[in-house]
Amino acid sequence: MRFSGWQILKEGLTGNHGWRPHWRDPAPKPEYDIVIIGGGGHGLSTAYYLAREHGLTNVAVLEKGYLGGGNVGRNTTIVRANYNLPGNSEFYSHSLKLWEGLSQDLNYNVMFSQRGVLNLFHSDGERDYAARRGNSMAIQGDDAVLLDREGVRRIVPYLDFDNPRYPIHGGLLHPRGGTARHDAVAWGLARGADARGVDLIQNCEVTGIDIDRGRVTGVQTVRGPIRAKKVGIVVAGRSGQVAAMAGLRLPVESHILQAFVSEGLKPVIHHVITSGVGHFYISQSDKGGLVFGGALDMYASYAQRGNLPGAEHVMEAAMHVMPMIGKARVLRSWGGIMDMTPDGSPIIDRTPVDGLYIDCGWNYGGFKATPASGFAFAHLLATDRPHASATRFRLDRFRTGRGIMDEEGAGAQHNLH
C-alpha cells in the first residue's frame, strides 16, 4: 500500500478498513544469504538499502525485542553534517543528503524538519574553532553561517547572553540541520525493507555465532539455528557482547547517555541549540516537549538508566544557557547504551572472521548517521568493498594507529568522545 492524500481520503470515507500492517511477522527460514543482527535504525537501514540498491532480498533482520525498541527509539533526534575532519565530514554530508530525500524514498513521513542547528561559542578560542569548522563544512559543500553575538540574538533572543561564567560570543549556524521523528524513521525503514521481501524477525535473540574453519556459517537464536553466508552485527551498545560470541574483542566501551523531555509547552524554540557548556543541547518536539541532554555518564554500563549527578549536570548546563526554561517540569528521562570508540568515530568494516561484518562505534551520534550507515554497510555486505563515504572507518586503525579519526582532539579515551 502506498500512502497518498487520495488513500487517506478513501479510507476516511470507507471506515478505515483498508489499512494493512506496515510489515509482516514471518517465521525465520532455515537459511538466508545475509543475516543482520539488530533491528534498530542502522540494521533496518542496512536491510532497506541491501534490497533497494543491490537487489538482495534473501535477508533477515533479527531483533531480540521489537523493531526500533533500542537507541533509535530513545534519542534526541538531531540530524546534522557539521563535522570538521576528513572522513567524518564526507560521511555525514552524504547522510544529510539521504535524509533530505528519505520520506519520498520510503513513501513514509519521517518528519524531517530542517530547522537549523546552532552551535554557540563562549570564548575567542571557541570562535576560532567554529570558523575553522564552518570553512571545512563549506569546502565539503554543506552550509555554515558564522554569527556574531548580535546575529545570534536576532534568531534566539531568549538565551542568557551575559552569563558571567559563559557569556555568548556568537554561534555557528547549520541551516540544513534539524531533527526527525525517531519512531517514524524506524517504522518507515522497516516498512520499506519488508515491502522488498526482507524478513524482519522480532523476539529472536541471537545466542551464538557459528564459525567453521574461520568462516561464519550462521547464528544460533532462541528460535533455532539459522544458516547464513554472511552475518552483519549492528547492535549499538551491545556490539562488544555480540562480537564476543565470535571470539572477537572490539575496541569499544558501552556508556550511558541520558536525555530528558519536559512537559508540553507552546512553540518557543525553533532551532536545535547546542553549547559546549556541559555539552548541552536542546530542541522542541512537535508535541511541545523540550528535548534536551548533555554529556554522557562517565562510567561504562549496560543499564538503560542514568544517574542523579548526570541529571544534575544537564540541568545546571541548561540554566547557564537558557534560564527561561527553569520552571518547566521534566516529564521523563531515559538512558541509551552507546558503543564508544577510543577516537569517537565509527567502525564499518569486515572482521577477521570471513563472512562476519561489523557496524558499530557510533558514540552519541548514531541517529543522524542512520541512512548513510545503512547505505555504506549494505554496500560492504553486498560487494565486500567499503563505500566511498566510509573508507576511513577501518577496524584496524586502533591496532596500527594509522588513520585515527579523533574529531574532538580528545585523545584515545572512550568516555571523552
What integer is the average pLDDT? 94
Our estimate of the beta-strand percent is: 15-25%
Amino-to-carboxy terminus distance: 43 Å
Extract low-pLDDT stretches: none
**Rg (C-alpha, Å):** 21 Å
What do these coordinates show?
- The protein is 28% helix and 24% strand.
- It is an alpha/beta fold.
- The protein is built from 10 helices and 18 strands.
- The two termini are 43 Å apart.
- The model has no long low-confidence stretch (mean pLDDT 94).
- It folds into 2 domains: 195 residues, 3-Layer(bba) Sandwich (FAD/NAD(P)-binding domain), CATH 3.50.50.60; 155 residues, D-Amino Acid Oxidase, subunit A, domain 2 (D-Amino Acid Oxidase, Chain A, domain 2).
- α2 runs parallel beside α6.
- The protein is globular and about 65 Å long.
- Strands 1, 2, 8, 9, 10, 11, 17 and 18 form an 8-stranded mixed beta sheet that branches. Strands 5-6-4-13-14-15-12-16 form an 8-stranded mixed beta sheet. A two-stranded antiparallel ribbon has the order 3-7.
Task: Give a short synopsis of this structure.
This protein has helices spanning about 5-15, 40-55, 90-105, 125-140, 150-155, 180-195, 240-245, 310-320, 370-385, 395-400, and strands at about 30-35, 60, 80, 115-120, 145-150, 170-175, 180, 200, 205-210, 215-220, 225-235, 255-265, 270-275, 280-285, 290-295, 330-340, 345-350, 355-360. With about 425 residues, the chain is α/β, with parallel strands linked by helices.
